[in-house]
Amino acid sequence: MGLETGTYIDSLDAANPAATDALSQADEHLRLIKATVKATFPSVTGAVTATHTAINTKVAEPVSAITSDGSNPSLNTGAGVTADKLKTLIGVSTPAITTATDSEGEVTPSLATGITAVEVWNLVKLAALDSIYPVGAIYTAITSGSPATVFGGTWVSFGQGRVMVGHDDAAEPDTDFVAPSGDGSSVLLGGAKTHTLSIAEMPSHTHTINGIENPSGSGSNGSEDGASSFTNNLTTNATGGGGAHNNLQPYVVVYMWKRTV
To answer: Could you give the CA distance from residue 87 to residue 84 in angstroms, rounded to a whole number?
Structure first.
């Protein structure tokens, strides 16, 4: 039969040469084999030392992460491709909180798979703390636990045994109620639990005293002359204990904390 033709290795026919071909065609077959090998590997200029496994792995056709039927894309799950892997590859983060809207427009938030409420709170509580209770803020509660266990931050007990009064920022303020600093570096303390009235603080009042006649007087002013004597300088008996009076308004005791850090 005539000599086969071809440009690359895949053009060669493993059945050639046929047993009936003339021996004189052997040289032509060898030349064809060498030509197709050189054409197939034109850039190979040295010995190839890699194993067939290494070569096969290196030149294997890449597996598509996303396949398509021409209209709808889908993940190549058969090759082990998952949505999480694809998101990691392209740098997309899964929202920790997602929302769903029902037919009436009601939006319902929910946590993403694998996300717990504690994890979300730990993530946002510092930002929430700085927004709601910045440094210098006062926190009150009827329970004794420090707000640090709930919000974080550093807190100290504040205002022990005292009530708080608003800063007087009027045009002509009462100086007894003007805060000494705007940054909380110092506070103004005042007032007293008890108070003892001074004479100046006592209400103005009088005491009525009737004159006392002494019918047994002596001398020209005594009864011998038919006249009585009178005592004009009199002192009333003292009363009252002079103690301090309670100066408290109605109150309820709570726990107060000030954030310092």
So the answer is: 5
20-63 pLDDT, tens digit per residue, is 777 777 888 888 899 999 999 899 899 989 898 888 877 776 77
Pairing of the two strands 245-246 and 138-141? unpaired
**Count of positions (residues) in the chain:** 261
| β partners of residue 99 | 109
Tokens read off for 149? 């266990």
- Round to whole Å and give the CA distance between 261 and 259: 6
Cα 37 to the chain's mean position, in Å? 68
Model-wide pTM > 0.70: no
Question: Is there a contact between 177 and 165 (Cβ–Cβ < 8 Å)?
Answer: yes
State the CB neighbour count (10 A cutoff) for residue 259. Answer: 23
Specify the DSSP class assigned to residue 223. G
Burial of 194 (0-12, 13-18, 19+ CB in 10 A): exposed
Q: What is the pLDDT of residues 224-261, one digit of tens each?
A: 555 556 556 677 888 888 899 999 999 999 999 999 99
